[in-house]
Amino acid sequence: MIIHKIAVNTADADFVREAWNVPNCRSLICKVREVWKGKERLSCTKRYFVSSLDAQVVSPERFLELSCGHWQVENRLHLVKDRWWDEDKHVLFRPGLGEIWSAMTDLAISLLWSCGEKGKPITKKAMKVAHEPSKYLEKLGY
């Protein structure tokens, strides 16, 4: 069983914003994730966040949803960009090429999400586009 606990601190947000020069800091968040098997705690991790969201408007439960949602997006992009397209393995020696490569993979991912059947894994969409590029170029107006 996985248990998430969250604590929101607004009292120290002013200090972080001013002393550490973190613009728009309005909330400091500590998220604790515990993994249990029966009565035995297998692991406990803490993650800290700085947020521009107002704790008077956003509930601790919503902060938890947003932080979990962020990691879902992050993990999905990591799977596609690094594991499938080996983005981290590309060695680019000229300045600026890394940013261009990343922008191109972001564009390709956006195009793949918009092509084909909804809910189909992006890797399957990419394989389909690779086999029938003209069909998908037509969808994009080319």
Alpha-carbon distance between the termini?
Answer: 50 Å
Q: What Rg is obtained from the alpha carbons, in whole angstroms? A: 21 Å
Percent helix: 40-55%
Order of helices and strands: EHEEHHHH
Q: Which stretches of 5+ consecutive residues score pLDDT under 50?
A: none
- Count of separate DSSP helical elements: 5
Q: What would you call the structural class?
A: alpha+beta
State the total count of DSSP E strands.
3
Q: Could you report the average pLDDT, rounded to the nearest whole number?
A: 82
Oligomer: single chain
Overall 3D form = extended
Provide the β-strand percentage band: 15-25%
Query: How is the main sheet built?
Result: 3 strands, antiparallel
The domain tally reads 2
Major β-sheet strand ordering: 1-2-3
List keywords for this structure.
single chain; 142 residues; alpha+beta; 2 domains; 3-stranded antiparallel beta sheet; 5 helices; extended
Structure write-up:
- With 142 residues, this protein is α+β, with helices and mostly antiparallel strands.
- A three-stranded antiparallel β-sheet has the order 1-2-3, covered by helices on one side.
- It is built from five helices and three strands; from the N terminus they run βαββαααα.
- The longest helix is centred in the middle third of the chain and has 25 residues, at 60-84.
- The chain folds into two domains: 1-72, no CATH class; 85-142, no CATH class.
- α4 (122-131) crosses α5 (133-139).
- The protein has helices at residues 13-19, 60-84, 97-114, 122-131, 133-139, and strands at 2-9, 27-37, 40-51.
